[in-house]
Give the backbone structure.
Amino acid sequence: MAKISRWWPGGLFLFILGLPSGAMAELSRMDDTDLAGVSGQGGIYLSGDISINELGGPIQNSYFGACGDEGKKCGARLAYRLKEDGGWFVLDDIRGSFSFEGLTLRVRHIDSGFGGDGELFNRDVVELGLPNVVRYHDVHFTVAASNTARPTDAGFQQTDLFSIEMQGDVTLEGNLLVFPTDSP
């Protein structure tokens, strides 16, 4: 028998015929009274494996290079200016990987609790359900201060404050609630 290596119209027909009869059930409309008796739960359940510059980023210059190059930074860089005319807060040399299972995201209504403030609030919030375990593998980053945003800018000077390396499992429990604020 010949091996079929691509879809062909007859193959789709045979696939549909092979479905169990329940898979071909017809959808029907529900009126409002029937729908009122249905309850459900909404939300998102996420699992992931995220890697950041494990071998170094795509930029090769006097500052960035491969992770094996002595004296070069190989990870990502984020710079934040805290004041309009101030210096820069920097997360530098960010690299490694982490994985998690069971991060949840849903909308929750708060109308009680919080020392009586929940009743006054009476609105929806975003609830992030923290995953039970986050696994870190060779995660590394440096916290620093800099006079410019980019290491290639003229007069660049950076002071590394401390470096963090993480390996292993971290247990997270609970939820993080994100409360909306009214914009001015």
The CA atoms of residues 47 and 101 lie 4 Å apart. The radius of gyration is 26 Å. The helical segments are 9-18, 32-36, 117-121. The first helix runs from residue 9 to 18.
